[in-house]
Amino acid sequence: MSNSKRAVVLLSGGLDSATVLAIAKSEGYECYALSFDYGQRHQFELQAAEKLCQKFDVQKHVTIEIDLRKFGGSALTEEIEVPKDRDEEVMATGIPITYVPARNTVFLSIALGWAEVLGAFDLFIGVNAVDYSGYPDCRPEFIQQFTKLANLATKAGVDGSGEFNIHTPLIDLTKAQIIQRGITLGVDYSQTHSCYDPNEAGISCGHCDACQLRQRGFENAGLTDPIEYQT
Amino acid sequence: MSNSKRAVVLLSGGLDSATVLAIAKSEGYECYALSFDYGQRHQFELQAAEKLCQKFDVQKHVTIEIDLRKFGGSALTEEIEVPKDRDEEVMATGIPITYVPARNTVFLSIALGWAEVLGAFDLFIGVNAVDYSGYPDCRPEFIQQFTKLANLATKAGVDGSGEFNIHTPLIDLTKAQIIQRGITLGVDYSQTHSCYDPNEAGISCGHCDACQLRQRGFENAGLTDPIEYQT
User: N or C: more exposed end of chain B, with fewer CB within 10 A?
Assistant: First the structure.
């Protein structure tokens, strides 16, 4: 049942998860990419995810639909205005309104289910504790706790056939470092989508937290962001 | 944000979760019932859940669709034959083919997301370590670990505004004791559905593990199961 070179990679289609996919691939994993359609505004991420899967030759790409709008509670899934042009300091404090309740817990749980079916014990997720310090489920202690849970929640936890490992290769990197790493590994960032509030054509707003962090990342890396922004 | 009398109750529409709903209600909780349509064969459970919500006057009932068939790996979601007429001893050993990978982890994670939106800190789940000893995610240590995770994964874990509690009132009860408890609390078990493999009219098979445990439970409780079985 165990297949140590299979990995489930959470792939939103954003800059971070694109880099994570490239890292998993570079480490020799046979990648199974998992995306979620959870009623998010930025559906363009899903199209980006599809392109990345082709590029990085993933074994299988599954998109799970799960309508978290039924609960409400986040600007990403409800008709609440996405905050724009916030200071970096403001962004770094408190929990952003764009936080989706228990999102990473839900995503990792579903990834765990797939891993169990595949006989895979490696999960990859692009959480980052630098830029998103306000998200409780991006912290290292959350990941450690989820790993413990994974090893209790599954067949492997009962029969000892393997041990789950949650890989978070970006957790301590700045956005600029993530971009530099990705470019080394052949990520074409023009194929990624980050904006929380794109227009109907999918063009990024340039002003939401995600756009600002992305733009600043390219700037700090001394590079030009290859995607188009609304003028 | 905290509302200590709100609870999210996982409600499949089966005998166990119906009893859990009655218990939560009897303890004074304002109940928010959560069901899942995960491509299971026993869709009749969902209809049963709806009836139970009316009976127990739940505040809101949400059914989340999540297509776990995309992963495969279980007789409940794939076209694998549901095992019939198994000995109690066989049932109690090993992990049954009807196990859905990481199911309770996924369900509890989504319940946690809703609880966070509601400002609720109490979750109720009908896991049972007596009859389903083969399911890794029905064990007390799994529940303890999930509780720790919940308190790290959420806003409350960051701002200390509350502490999550996962209630498992059935965990140490036999099926007969569950039924007796439910009857005391007014559960009408004719409104519940347990069978893994009902016919097209929703009539239970009487031979799958769920039917057998149910029938034995009523027998041991000295009661008659009010539902109909295929002859």
Answer: C
Could you give the CA distance from residue B111 to residue B150 in angstroms, rounded to a whole number? 10
- What's the CATH number where B16 sits? 3.40.50.620
Confidence band of B26 (pLDDT split at 50, 70, 90): very high
Q: C-alpha angle B122/B127/B129, rounded to 5°?
A: 130
pLDDT digits (tens, 9 = 90+) for B183-210: 999 999 999 998 888 888 889 999 988 8
B226 falls within a domain: no
Residue range A181-228, pLDDT digits in tens: 999 999 999 999 888 888 888 899 999 888 999 999 999 999 999 999
- pLDDT of B73 > 70? The answer is no
Task: Judge whether B1 lies within some domain.
Answer: no
The DSSP symbol for B163 reads: -
| A64 vs B67, B114, B157: nearest CB | B67
Answer whether residue B174 is part of any domain.
yes
Is 0.90 topped by the overall pTM?
no
Count of structural domains within chain B: 1
Cβ–Cβ contact B161 with A under 8 A? no
Chain A: nearest CA to B52, how far in angstroms?
Answer: 20
d(CA B59, CA B208): 33
**pLDDT of B103 above 90:** no
- Structural tokens at position A20: 């994570």
Full residue range of the structural domain in which residue A37 is found? 6-220
Q: Return all residues near A167 (Cβ < 8 A) that are at least 6 apart.
A: A7, A20, A24, A122, A123, A124, A125
| Residues of chain B found within 8 Å of residue A71, distances taken between Cβ atoms | 62, 113-114, 117
CA-nearest of A48, A158, A175, A66 to A111 is A66
A158 CB neighbours in chain B (<8 A) are 95, 136
